[in-house]
């Protein structure tokens, strides 16, 4: 038995608006308000046939404004039989006005890359956005069943904080969350105004204004622990260009910080890290790597074990050493053997080579 309107599952506003746009594009003659409320995803779940749908009609009016604010042309068509009647007024989005400009086209390779991107998103928490993107590609003539040459990128957006932060950003809401900073024993509560969420070097970052510090900060989503909670009554307008500014800041941080590491010839480290080397040296075994976060690079380098030796900076060398000694000591405990009598290197401190958090 289908759920009653008052118990119908909630549909996200993004999904409802997208479903409305698709429906209005698909029709040639337009849809009446009754058609929309009774059939379109996000409305039909709450529609009461022959009953009171006043709140649903008000929602539709707000959604129309949102669609127009997005720059999507929404057209109304009067009924020939009853001109001026809102009951018989039809809505549609003229496909010709919503098509890509005539001078914009995609090659077969570009369309395939777009589709691959959609597949990547679908693997993570952004599956809804993926389906929408693939639907748009289909409207451009890309068959959703086309083969992807047996390859799919491994990028996944699985940080639990991504979705609630995205919603807060869209709605101009301030949020609070627990954030575990490297070197600190427990997470601290942060209250921030989100400015942008960006992907840099394969990791998601939140650019935000820290309310306690009254300054801009960048947070790694993977270090947010627990739920993201909106702050009641706290709202903030979006900042144009915030995403681009955040990426430029991260690029500057990446360019300003570098490490020199020695890798074992022919090793996995030499193969993988060699692709990221940015300078030419006299020795093929010395690589220069840029980074935005010292602790993340230390985690990666420690994973190569004896295949890598950090030359500079000292903080990175200490951080890698601390991780390796921790692995050694944990192994000694599990096997019941005594570790060598050596003291671990000092714990790394926050340096200019870490994301500001």
From TrEMBL:
Skewed-composition ranges (Polar residues): 332-357
PROSITE patterns: WYL (PS52050)
Domain WYL: from-to ranges: 161-225
InterPro entries: CBASS_pafABC_assoc_protein, WCX_dom, WYL_dom
Residues covered by region (Disordered): 330-357
Domain WCX: 261-324
Protein's UniProt name: WYL domain-containing protein
Organism: Leifsonia kafniensis
